[in-house]
Give the backbone structure.
Amino acid sequence: MINFFKVAVFSLLMVMAFWAFANFGIPQIKPAPPPVEEKLDLGAMTMDQFIALGGKIFNGKGTCTLCHNKMGRAPMLDQIGKNAPERLKDPRYKGTAKTIEEYIHESMEHPSAYVVAGFGKSGTNDTESPMPVVTGGSIGLKEAEVQAVIAYLQDSGGAEVTVTIPEMPAAGAEAEAPAAEAAAPLKTAEEVIAKYGCGMCHTVAGQAGELGPNLTKIGATKSKDYIRQSILDPDAVIAKGFTGGMMPQTFGEEMKAKELEMLVNYLAGSK
């Protein structure tokens, strides 16, 4: 009987210990509210303010500097005014732009129209660009933001600023889009990977990004905790052969908890 009570007490203590660990020892993942979209009062902006907005987007939301930097992952853009006309005349150019403004716009939405020599995807002979479309995926720039970036690149790249500040959209038009997007939660890890642009840098889910580690077999060597930490705090541990500061630090704020765990489970199962 004494042994029975000992076993019962021990079992009870173990259950309580696991309960305490599960509730207080494991970090709780709570979905953060969607990032607050910056309100653009275009009607009150001067051109200098619009150019400054473009610089802010270029260095922030647009994630342009992750690749367009002195580390040589993508062409520098400080001479775009001089380089654009030459590239439009290049026999390899396959776009439709006629002006510097059109060329920059095309490069952002159709980056493979012209690929600077040495910066194409591996094995494509510089015919396919690794650059994502900035109006889709996790970047998702609006047309007014694209125009602001173009103005910034023209101004900083030695070209005349030909962009005009867009008119404000109708009051109800912009409010409907976020509501429609919020009503369609992601259901698969592949959708998460596509939405947040993981394939821009990583080889994963049929996409062949080359800037970050190959994730096709990461589950064979890394735990779920490691994978989760790498998404939420990407510079905590830098993979051998890569440098910090490349991966966005905002996925913990942008992803819903279910999306995060869906992605973690998918990658952990990639063996």
Summary: The chain has a mean pLDDT of 82.
